[in-house]
Amino acid sequence: KVSEGPTEMDLVSARVMDASLSLLWQCVFSPANIVGLVAFVLLFYVLQQYERHRRYANIPPGPKPWPIVGNFGGFLVPSFIVRRLAKYRKEFAKMASNPLSPQAGLLEMSKLYGNIFSIFVGPQLMVVLTGYETVRDAMLNHPEVFSDRPQIPLVTIITKRKGIVFAPYGPLWRTNRKFCHSTLRSFGFGKPSLEPCIYEGLTMIKTELQSLIEKAGPSGIDLTPLISSAVSNVISSMSLGQRFHHQDQEFRTMLDLMSHGMEISVSTSILLVNVFPWLYYLPCGAFKELRRAEIDITAFLKKIIARHRATLDPENPRDFIDMYLVEMLAQQMGDNSEESLFSEDDLLYIIGDLFIAGTHTTTNSVLWSILYMSLYPDVQEKVQQEIDAVVGSERVPSVTDKGSLPYTEATIMEVQRMTVVVPLSIPHMASETTEFRGYTIPKGTVIIPNLWSVHRDPTVWENPDDFNPDRFLDEQGKLLRKDCFIPFGIGMFLEIIRKKVIPVWKDMRVSK
Ligand code: HEM
């Protein structure tokens, strides 16, 4: 096809376009506009700094934050770069040779800045509470201000702020919490009626252990999958109404996804999502893996909820899900005009919370106990002697034996004190601006109670780094309750867990 070339009309419109662009250019980039723009940017910056200064005028002391990344710049540097830099800079050499756990690192910082100090993650202010007195004062004397949960971008994306653990403090959270507590209780949480389920787990562990040891020989075995199956089966039988075989493919996959998801959620690259939330949607690496885990766990739980809905008999609820569905239907059919606080969507996140909050914590506590018993055979011997004397060898211990096994209980408490499986608790948030111990804590500040520091606080524990169950016993060998023992944090829900979980966990003793 032969081109006919531009027409007169095309030339005129091209000239008009040129002229308009040049006019626009002159208008936008005229000296007056450039001066105006610079003035605007400067004014914006000054106002922002002023607002920041005003907002953070009296916050607790802390290290100076870097722009954009806050105080986590060093933390975000990948480990291979840290190793390289270690050759040239002292602070990087320290980071590479002695990587501290976050809780120990924060305890070190408190020695520099005090028991209440500020750090910034990106633009987010966090206040870290260290030591028993400070944590207790905040959580017990100011619960109405410090009980809220923060909107951490990564957590908000995954949980949509539903369920219990990361739901905002308010009517929905209260309703869910109350419902969970009474319903779990009615399905045996902390009661002898749950024990057959725990014993079943124990029998499975013993049988599997024997065959695994025979197969593995001297190379040793990893106990984690066995213990986590047994623990999550207890949670499963209360909430989903079914136990799974520990090798059930679907169940195993869900447990692996949960634990893998938890692991990668604290990896450096994923933590960056809290500074740049769009990273979560990247189609590669840890981001893709975490999204896959989220999708698969949701699909697994949705399938179980749908199965419950299809076979629901409101007169005979079988488990937590049935109870929730019955309550949800009752609210939907009720004639009160108030919007129902129960929904299948919320149910999904509550179940997820129970699994995630309950499985990892209890499994790790059992694993730590086994490790401590191997490290301290003399303590193991005394625990075994007490159990043999009180319970005998014909049966396994029961919740009802609790009061008669003080040394065993003191040992469990000492393992919990030393290890603190949730060392920085679950972050809290200041729901309003408040004065605390002479500092101003602005609304929206994330509050991190360093529970680990409380359990290593030399002002309340003698030789806190030593493993010594006797610290929980008086001269007559009776159990001493100590307010500074707070593995479950300090607060309202925690009393419930303290009373209900310990007896259940205690039954999972190390067998001779
Ligand atoms: C040894 C075992 C456990 C330990 C050490 C532990 C520890 C904790 C800690 C430190 C918190 C944060 C408290 C706070 O916000 O200040 C917490 C919250 C929570 N835990 Fe556990 N936990 C354990 C077992 C369980 C189990 C078995 C369940 C349920 C099946 C559970 C469900 C929850 C829930 C729902 C919350 C959120 C409570 C709320 O926001 O009010 N935990 N736990």
UniProtKB/TrEMBL annotation:
An MF annotation (GO) of this entry: oxidoreductase activity, acting on paired donors, with incorporation or reduction of molecular oxygen, reduced flavin or flavoprotein as one donor, and incorporation of one atom of oxygen
Swiss-Prot/TrEMBL cofactor(s): heme
Family to which this protein belongs: Belongs to the cytochrome P450 family.
GO cellular component: cytoplasm; membrane
Locations listed in the record: Membrane
Keywords assigned by UniProt, alphabetized: Iron, Membrane, Metal-binding, Monooxygenase, Oxidoreductase, Transmembrane, Transmembrane helix
GO biological process: organic acid metabolic process; xenobiotic metabolic process
Native source organism of the sequence: Sinocyclocheilus rhinocerous
Protein name per Swiss-Prot or TrEMBL: Cytochrome P450 2U1-like
SUPFAM superfamilies: Cytochrome P450 (SSF48264)
Alphabetical list of PANTHER family matching this protein: CYTOCHROME P450 2U1, CYTOCHROME P450 508A4-RELATED
Pfam families per record: p450
Chain segments annotated as transmembrane: 23-47, 68-86
